[in-house]
Amino acid sequence: MGRLTRQFFARDTLVVARHLLGQRLVRMLDGDRLSGRIVEVEAYVGEDDQASHARPGRTERNAPMYGPPGHAYVYLIYGMHHCLNTVTEREGFPAAVLIRALQPVEGIERMRELRSGRADLPLTSGPARLCQALAIDRAFDGADLCAPDALLFLEEGVPVADEAVAQSPRIGVRGDERAMTAAWRFYLRDNRHVSR
DNA sequence: GAATCGATGGTCT
DNA sequence: GACCATCGATTCT
């Protein structure tokens, strides 16, 4: 199974978001593979996107969004949760795709342990949940997802048909009318691992 | 089920 | 000092 290349990410962000569905996110942890199939993502595109962290321009936190494609942008939200993005398009233009949900595939027991051992909580249905399940924190902020020795990377999955893809406005976006209505969330229709 | 709320800390004005 | 690209528990209908 091949890995997604930098060229995959160096495209229009909405195209990358759509085609991330069905791909495999892999985390190497202590020699074990923890992985899941991507079932839900959101696109954040440019400084004109009022919902993007890049809206105020370049800062220390959002710097990876301005960097080369194929790198990670990981941030802390609400003082306790991490969220993972893949940087897209060209260096200098701030854009990224937020990974919102996975369907667990490999290392499920280890994910459960990382999720505090509870059997009744969703493993990877939510941007912060999947980061906890895959032990992703700000140590991965700016990491190259295309490096040969990367501990976090993406692999080609089974292609997803257009009929299986649904779109909606992004979750948790408020305030700006255009940002609230843009259908930049992509998810697999009828997949039970999609968040909410 | 749906609505509401507290936790908790980095980032930016 | 306000604001979060959230989650899990609690409190309703």
What does it look like?
- This protein is an alpha+beta fold and 196 residues long.
- The protein has one domain (6-188): 3-methyladenine DNA Glycosylase, Chain A (Roll), CATH 3.10.300.
- The chain is built from six helices and eight strands, in the order ααββαβββααββαβ.
- The radius of gyration is 15 Å and the shape is globular.
- The mean pLDDT is 97.
- It binds a DNA duplex (13 and 13 nucleotides) through strand 3, strand 4 and helix 5.
Shape: globular
Order of helices and strands: HHEEHEEEHHEEHE
Return the domain count. 1
Helix fraction by DSSP (H/I, runs of at least 4): 10-25%
Number of helices: 6
Averaging pLDDT over every residue, what do you get? 97
Give keywords.
196 residues; alpha+beta; 3-methyladenine DNA Glycosylase, Chain A; eight-stranded antiparallel β-sheet; 18% helix; globular; DNA-binding
Reconstruct the topology from this structure:
Layout: H1 6-9, H2 13-20, E1 24-29, E2 32-45, H3 63-66, E3 72-77, E4 81-87, E5 95-106, H4 108-114, H5 127-133, E6 152-155, E7 165-168, H6 177-181, E8 185-188
Antiparallel strand pairs: 1-2, 1-6, 2-5, 2-8, 3-4, 4-5, 7-8
The structure holds a DNA duplex (13 and 13 nucleotides).
Short description:
This protein has 196 residues and is α+β, with helices and mostly antiparallel strands. 18% of the residues lie in helices and 29% in strands. The chain binds a DNA duplex (13 and 13 nucleotides) through strand 3, strand 4 and helix 5.
